[in-house]
Amino acid sequence: MEEEYAALLANQTWDLVPRPSDCNVVIGKWIWTRKRRADGNLDCYKAHCVLRNFTQRPGVDYDETFSPVVKPATVRTVLSLALSRSWPVHQLDVKNVFLHGTLTKTVYCCQPAGFVDSSRPNMVCRFNKSLYGLKQAPRA
């Protein structure tokens, strides 16, 4: 959880602000998963801070949610082309990929459980970047 929280802070995902009286505050939670290696053995435990998108209001917290996606046939075509022309192919994994998307709507959330700022416990997080669980996260 500390590693995830540090990544959120390092990416300047949010700013702590006083809670506006006329805003919707989205609820967040922690999710824990087990990552496994290719052979099925446990690799590590991961914690993700996510937002519960069912507490978002259309037109207030988000507008568009559509995210363009690459079809598998397109991926196969590009890989076939690369193979036929001997182009090098690389794969990469972007850590905390959703934290790199910039939001167009203002979204507020309570401070993450276990990481409430003791000097500012009544403040809320105003998001600068996207976070897992937001309806508009894949689009961002």
Mean pLDDT: 82
**Portion in strands:** 15-25%
Topology, number of strands:
6
Radius of gyration, in Å, reads 19 Å
Helical residue percent band: 10-25%
Identify the strand order in the major beta sheet. 1-6-5-2
Per-chain topology:
Elements: H1 2-10, E1 14-18, E2 25-26, E3 28-36, E4 42-51, H2 72-84, E5 108-109, E6 123-127
Parallel strand pairs: 2-5
Antiparallel strand pairs: 1-6, 3-4, 5-6
Architecture overview:
- The chain has two helices and six strands.
- The chain has a four-stranded mixed sheet with strand order 1-6-5-2, with no helix packed on it. The chain has a two-stranded antiparallel ribbon with strand order 3-4.
- About 15% of the residues lie in helices and about 25% in strands.
- A hairpin with a 5-residue loop joins β3 (about 30-35) and β4.
- The protein has helices spanning about 1-10, 70-85; strands spanning about 15-20, 25, 30-35, 40-50, 110, 125.
- It is an alpha+beta fold.
- The protein is globular, with a radius of gyration of 19 Å.
